Amino acid sequence: MHLIIGNKNYSSWSMRPWVLLKAFGIPFEERKLRFDFAPGSDFYRELARYTPTGKVPVLIEDEGFAVWDTLAIAEHIAERHPELPIWPRDVRQRSRARSLCAEMHAGFGALRQNCPMNIEASLPEVGTRLLAEQPQVRADLARIDAIWSEQLAASGGPFLFGEFGAIDAYFAPVVMRIHSYGLPLSPASAAYAQRVRQAPGVADWISDALAEQDFLDFEEPYRSART
Ligand SMILES: N[C@@H](CCC(=O)N[C@@H](CS)C(=O)NCC(=O)O)C(=O)O
């Protein structure tokens, strides 16, 4: 099995299935395509061999069967590994975890647009300004904090539904955005975010992202160079 991903410092969508596979010890080979969104770039040319969407991540099984889009990939991994608690075992808990993943997948546009994932960057002054100027960023952050604190209270933690699962992999890039932009969280959510950053899979992705050292100006609204 191969997972086609983008730059680890920037590719929030790629991070989710990579972390999920690592966290559950599912073997796979990573294939990283350096981001280049110019029409006809190597990124798009190479990707076109696997997916019609022109987007990473893509999971490739034997015989080249491709699964694209992070939600479909998470479901595919769970179906291939019914023995692993990738989703909660209880049907209602499982549906709730899927609802929250879908909410993340389709929503939080202001946070995603204004705070692009940039693991190596430390931009708390940008975060402070965004919170002051952008009510929708404040609303997205408040909803994330509510999801996390309510779920942790309901499950008892340490992760959203108890043990680490697809839902936590799904929120891992959000954890990274909140960290880079120094966005404030309630104590319970802040402790959860720290546990996610230290979780197996997430910690591996972070150290790979920090080692990458590949500055892409089109991914950098707030920096002109690595600092
Ligand atoms: N809904 C897709 C989104 C994937 C996505 O937007 N990937 C970005 C990189 S993080 C990408 O490949 N962008 C290339 C482009 O937009 O042309 C998913 O869940 O996988």
Features:
single chain; 227 residues; alpha+beta; Glutaredoxin; Glutathione S-transferase Yfyf (Class Pi), Chain A, domain 2; 2 domains; 4-stranded mixed beta sheet; 10 helices; 53% helix; globular; binds glutathione
Short note summarizing the structure:
The protein has about 230 residues and is an alpha+beta fold. The protein is built from ten helices and four strands.
How would you characterize the largest beta sheet? Answer: 4 strands, mixed
Q: What class would the helix/strand composition place it in?
A: alpha+beta
The dominant shape is: globular
Tally of alpha and pi helices: 10
Bound molecules: glutathione
- SSE pattern: EHEHEEHHHHHHHH
Termini, distance in Å? 36 Å
Strands ordered across the widest β-sheet: 2-1-3-4
Radius of gyration: 17 Å
Number of domains: 2
Q: Round the mean pLDDT to the nearest integer and report it.
A: 97
Number of strands: 4
Q: In percent terms, what proportion of residues is strand?
A: 5-15%
> From the 3D coordinates, which CATH architecture of the largest domain would you assign?
Up-down Bundle
Query: Unreliable runs, pLDDT <50, ≥5 residues?
Result: none
**Fraction in helix:** 40-55%
Output the CATH class name of the largest domain. Answer: Mainly Alpha
What would the CATH topology of the largest domain be? Answer: Glutathione S-transferase Yfyf (Class Pi), Chain A, domain 2
